[in-house]
Amino acid sequence: MAFRYPNGKRFIPSGTKPSKSLTGTSPQFGNRGMTLEEDLNETNEYYLQTGQAVIHKKPTPVQIVGVDYPKRSAATITEAYFKQPSTTDYNGVYSGKYIDFEAKETRNKTSFPFGNVHEHQVKHMERVVNQGGIAFLIFRFSPTQEVYLYDASHFIYWFREQKERKSIPKNDIEEKGHLVPQGLSPRLDYLQIIDRVYF
Amino acid sequence: MAFRYPNGKRFIPSGTKPSKSLTGTSPQFGNRGMTLEEDLNETNEYYLQTGQAVIHKKPTPVQIVGVDYPKRSAATITEAYFKQPSTTDYNGVYSGKYIDFEAKETRNKTSFPFGNVHEHQVKHMERVVNQGGIAFLIFRFSPTQEVYLYDASHFIYWFREQKERKSIPKNDIEEKGHLVPQGLSPRLDYLQIIDRVYF
């Protein structure tokens, strides 16, 4: 059975060779076809273990409709549906400040389509910004494996003021965003950028 | 089918008369058998709408094992299991600061059993405190309907240093905690307490 993540991405069991299009043209990053989510989870786990930050991905919200309670087994959910998240996927704390972000990947080379970021997520970003929280997006361009941290205020501008465009030109992300250092551990050292840009 | 929430609590569909033991002896709070979770969700929604804070309950984490993709219907999760949360249930931002809390209810009159707060949730609280975040617990004593905000540092002390006790004496919660004002809207105005105590 081919599983898909709630975002539609195909689940690739370990041991399977990843498709070429995911490995990109930059083998030095050691990415080897890991999804952006996996790299971020690894990074967040590193920050947790080293006591640098407490940032987690929120669980996928599901609408539970049916549950079985077998006598000698764990409760089994037998019917449930994926709900649209009303917030962004990642949040936590760093140096007392609230951190909030959404992570997206694209195969596009010249722009970032914002089609898969939804109204309530943008509304959430606006609310977080209003409350003085640190909000941004992490964008990965699969062809080059480049990862950028892009402040939410810029994204909100494009989403609200330039809706007809449907995407953000890459050079705006290059100019206003920040390239995230990649490595073995942590894989995507975005905290380094937060430290430099927001503190 | 009688559903239970992942915490074991029975799901009571709207329109069903709540059991007497849940209404407590303080009808002036207008509680009418609503769970602590429902009251907090209502309160958080109020804070969201009035632009006062952005605080949400995290979705229940589930381990998804099987999904159906019917042609003209929404994807249906056909097999999943409840996972133990690795963090507390509620978090968000208020005035730029990270807010994090767990909410628990007890029918006990003289103490608060901490049996249903788990090791990784306490570890999470410790990590949040280490990062300068605001962390606390919201306790409700069902018999009197009193709701207290109790800083996580006190809870951590009892959990770590007084493990044999298995519960926190109510007068410690009265002394070191803060009674949360209750009303119609917001139902449990804990933000008032945060403002006074942490800012």
UniProtKB/TrEMBL annotation, chains A, B:
<keyword id="KW-0963">Cytoplasm</keyword>
<keyword id="KW-0234">DNA repair</keyword>
<feature type="compositionally biased region" description="Polar residues">
    <location>
        <begin position="16"/>
        <end position="29"/>
    </location>
</feature>
<protein>
    <recommendedName>
        <fullName>Holliday junction resolvase RecU</fullName>
        <ecNumber>3.1.21.10</ecNumber>
    </recommendedName>
</protein>
<feature type="binding site">
    <location>
        <position position="89"/>
    </location>
    <ligand>
        <name>Mg(2+)</name>
    </ligand>
</feature>
<feature type="region of interest" description="Disordered">
    <location>
        <begin position="1"/>
        <end position="32"/>
    </location>
</feature>
<keyword id="KW-0227">DNA damage</keyword>
<dbReference type="Pfam" id="PF03838">
    <property type="entry name" value="RecU"/>
</dbReference>
<feature type="binding site">
    <location>
        <position position="102"/>
    </location>
    <ligand>
        <name>Mg(2+)</name>
    </ligand>
</feature>
<keyword id="KW-0479">Metal-binding</keyword>
<feature type="binding site">
    <location>
        <position position="121"/>
    </location>
    <ligand>
        <name>Mg(2+)</name>
    </ligand>
</feature>
<keyword id="KW-0233">DNA recombination</keyword>
<dbReference type="InterPro" id="IPR011335">
    <property type="entry name" value="Restrct_endonuc-II-like"/>
</dbReference>
<feature type="binding site">
    <location>
        <position position="87"/>
    </location>
    <ligand>
        <name>Mg(2+)</name>
    </ligand>
</feature>
<feature type="site" description="Transition state stabilizer">
    <location>
        <position position="104"/>
    </location>
</feature>
<keyword id="KW-0255">Endonuclease</keyword>
<dbReference type="InterPro" id="IPR004612">
    <property type="entry name" value="Resolv_RecU"/>
</dbReference>
<keyword id="KW-0378">Hydrolase</keyword>
<dbReference type="InterPro" id="IPR011856">
    <property type="entry name" value="tRNA_endonuc-like_dom_sf"/>
</dbReference>
<comment type="function">
    <text>Endonuclease that resolves Holliday junction intermediates in genetic recombination. Cleaves mobile four-strand junctions by introducing symmetrical nicks in paired strands. Promotes annealing of linear ssDNA with homologous dsDNA. Required for DNA repair, homologous recombination and chromosome segregation.</text>
</comment>
<comment type="similarity">
    <text>Belongs to the RecU family.</text>
</comment>
<keyword id="KW-0460">Magnesium</keyword>
<keyword id="KW-0540">Nuclease</keyword>
